[in-house]
Amino acid sequence: MISNLEMATPMKPFERPISESGRLSVAEPVAPEPKLTVRDLNAWYGKNHALHGVNLTVTPHSVTAAIGPSGCGKSTFLRCLNRMHELIPGARAEGTLLIDGKDLLGRDVDPVTLRRRVGMVFQRPNPFPTMSIRDNVAAGLKLNRLPGNHDEIVERTLRQSALWEEVKDRLGASALSLSGGQQQRLCIARALAVEPEVLLMDEPASALDPIATAKIEDLIHELKERYTIVIVTHNMQQAGRVSDQTAFFYMGDLVEVGPTEKIFTNPSEKRTEDYVTGKFG
Amino acid sequence: MNPLRWRRFVNVFWTVASGTGVLVALVPLASLLWLVVSRGAPGLSASFFVSLPTPVGEPGGGVGNAIVGTFFMVGLASLMALPVGVGAGVYLAEKGDGPAGRVIRFTAEVLAGVPSIVIGIVAYGLIVTQMKRFSALAGGVALALIMIPSLARSTEDFIRLVPAALREASLALGVPGWKTSLRVIIPTALGGIVTAVLLAVARAAGETAPLLFTALNNQYWNTDPTQPTASLTVQIYNYAISPYEDWHSKAWTAALVLLLLVGLLNLMARLLSRNRMAGAQ
Prior knowledge:
CATH class of chain A: Alpha Beta
Number of strands of chain A: 10
Distance between the termini of chain B: 47 Å
CATH topology of chain A: Rossmann fold
CATH class of chain B: Mainly Alpha
Oligomer: heterodimer
Number of strands of chain B: 0
Distance between the termini of chain A: 40 Å
């Protein structure tokens, strides 16, 4: 892993409390370096100012949930983290985004290499329809000509995404022969195969039934051992179940960010309280 | 009147009216098919497909050389039109949102609207006057000019049908944009592109005007691109305008052969596109 500490050290850690639930932070004397640091992030769609000065940090091996009503900017925020946002015609983002203390938005940063470090799972399962199950998982490896034993990586990531037992006898079958929930776990395996450090999930369970949703949530718990996860969700109960830290977005502002327990039981902001208690949204 | 009974009356009225419209629209098609089959079928025999034309009054004979000539010239045209037309379509779909794309799209539309006889004259002026000879090459160029705009537009349409989610999935894996187009988007649209090619080929095979004064005709077998060449359509034209009853019936039979050929190509295109749609869902 490339860590560029000389850039990270002069930065002041954020005042906002970081989740204390992880074993890591208790055992170690100092708080770990943030995996992601976001400072004064602004995003636009043409003239529409969609995200206003967002600040937050994400600890390694934690799950951060972004919640808020539709159009609040949570998906835009997520798509800034792997620079998918700028692919939309007319869209741009400004501010500071650091991964392991290293700038992401700089001119000399290649978004293509960045996206190998920051993987993404989308709202609707989107396997490649022309490829088999095996080729879908290995797609990132093959298209990027990454080294390694692809068959081993396919098996490992399919096990990680809890799909191996269901597909091991038909790896050559079309990815479209799978159910929606299976397809979504396939997409997670595909994202994991290129060995990202951060995994972004954009409402990964919103198109799935409750059983498939439960499987994805269990998976998130397991995946955070190895990856740092940022998940956007519509569903507040889901945010409560899977995340360590919750960020509440409203109308393009990051209203409040803090440990999930605090956000749901004792938020500092009135708007957060109104949203999590279901008064609006 | 009771509103429900009125509702039923309106429903029946429009169902009958639109059904009648469909029947009326089908009359020309059905009568065309009936006429061609009833007049053409009696002359159909195995030797009709493989023999050379015979002089008036001599029994037997066929349009073997014209069938070969049609395939030959459509093949020549495809060699020229496929790279240009499909390439332009890929460009329009992937990069065609700027001013250059608008110019190309407009040009393709204008070219598609040019009457085929004009395209024949252009090929005559460009090639026949230079070579001082009618040739299969000139016919091929004329047919290629007819195929290019329809290929470009339908290739663009089929590539644009590929869901944006697939492009995002690939980009999010850190695959560069050009490789995403080449290895993910185009393979997904391939069924559609093949359909577009078959339809363009069928269209070119049925053209007469561009061949009349480019390839002219030939009473013998020919696969030399610099020589005049027979084609089914021009052969039908020549037989039909002749004063001989014997040749008239041959024109009907040749028309039936052409209809079968073009129908077969359309059928293949239809089957391919149906499979593609089944695959995508």
